[in-house]
Amino acid sequence: MTLKTTLRFSIYVAGVYVAFMMFGLAQERVHSVGWGPEGERFRYPIFLITIQSICNAIIAGTCLMWVAVFKKLTTEAPLGNTVRLGAPWWAFAVTGLSVITSMLCSNAALSHVDYPTQVLAKSCKMVAVMAAAIILVRKRYPKAQYAAVAVLTLGIFMFSFFRKKGAAGSDSSLLGVLLLLASLTCDGITATLQDKFVASHRPSALQLMLSINIFSVVYGVAAVTITGQLATALKYISEADRGLIVAIMAFGMTSGVGQIFLFGLIRDFGSLSATITTTTRKFFTILLSVLLYGHSIPMASWAGVVLVFVGLAFNIFQKKKPKPTIPAGFPKPGTVDVSEINPFPDPYSSATSMAPSLAGSRRGSVGSDLSTMKDDSDLESVVSLAFSDPQSLNSSGY
Q1: Where do the H-state alpha helices sit in 202-270?
Q2: How far apart are CA 164 and CA 128, in angstroms?
Q3: 265 neighbors 12 (Cβ within 8 angstroms)
Q4: Which residues cross the membrane (predicted)?
């Protein structure tokens, strides 16, 4: 890579690391600190998710408008081509519902499990994606990918089984695990839906981000209004320490900014670089959370962490194996009906099929002389004339 390309790649990676690591720390800080007058914790996940969706939508919309104005100034392209949805509204509406449900379950799980458990579980999102694709669209995967899933499952089991029990009881821990499973299920449904309508309508990354977050905001506002969390959350915030507002805003803004860097990494350097970056970022997020918040993780659980990331890396690299290339001029597999191929072609029928094309070539002079040939020498001159001109062969379709 050139120096300029290396610098751009480094900026994207640094942006993903810094933004999402700060996002994770802000998320844990919102849930783990007693902000209330009597030390009570923040217990309003729907309100928090709505704030996150609003921040994501604002950042995506701002970037889209900037891109639209830039295109207008440089290419005079209509603004509507850039800021439109890019796909039917109902596709984003259904996807937005699964997205906000996943975020709701994930954030609610933090009230019952600590952040490293949540991060490690969310690192196994591909397990849910594979399961949803198999169940919903009957997709099949290579055996190597199933092996990667088995390694991931073993790593999760080791991490959870050997962890020391936290302050919450077994019921609370079980509820947290169930919420994480529900979140992963919604992640799988989201990925399957997105693959369907993105392949059909090809919206841009920013269009996808903005549209899904708009519907997430609509669902979030409706949910906090129906459940009454809007009034209670605002009352709690008004009585809580001022640091809570800072933590909530940091939570929302780092989420949106991190997605922008991630989309840039995918656009310029491909999904493999983006996946490796986000996977290693999750590992360092666990380390940072353990160091800052003093989570106890025994050596056996660290072995589970290693297995999880080994499984993730194995799945990533085996999916990116280079496929055998087809030489130029050869048909692609599945495009030729072998039942129509005659292994013993009739040379006379081939010559006959070429006759009309040959007759019409060479400015029509050959065709006019075919009917008046008097001897073999005339036939030889016609054939040599036809095969000496490449255009005559091209016109026959061979």
Answers
A1: 205-227, 229-239, 243-269
A2: 26
A3: yes
A4: 6-26, 46-69, 89-110, 144-162, 174-193, 205-231, 243-266, 286-314
Tell me: do 271 and 388 sit in the same domain.
no
- pLDDT in the model for residue 160: 65
Q: Which residue has the higher pLDDT, 126 or 183?
A: 183
Q: Quick one: tokens of 331?
A: 């048909």
Name the amino acid, one letter, at 91: A
Return the minimum-mean-pLDDT range out of 123-132, 207-216, 386-395: 386-395
Map residue 34 onto helix, strand or coil: coil
Whether residue 370 sits in one domain with residue 253: no
DSSP assignment letter at 164: P
10 Å CB burial of residue 388 (0-12, 13-18, 19+) is exposed
Note the residue count of the chain: 398
Does residue 302 fall inside a structural domain?
A: no
User: Tokens for 219?
Assistant: 């669902």
CB 132 within 8 A of CB 192: yes
Residues 250 and 364 in one domain: no
Q: Using alpha carbons only, how large is the chain's radius of gyration in Å? A: 31
Alpha-carbon gap, residue 161 to 153, rounded angstroms: 12
- pLDDT: which is higher, 85 or 70: 70
Using CA atoms of 151, 156, 160, 162 in order, give the dihedral in degrees to the nearest 10.
Answer: 30
Decide if 321 is inside a domain. Answer: no
Q: How many domains does the chain have?
A: 2
- Is residue 211 within 8 A of residue 203, CB to CB? The reply is yes
Confidence check: pLDDT of 251 > 90:
yes
- Domain interval for residue 385: 359-398
In angstroms, the CA 333 to CA 21 distance is 45
CA pair distance 218, 57, nearest whole angstrom: 11
Of 241, 261, 293, the residue at which a domain comes to its end is 293
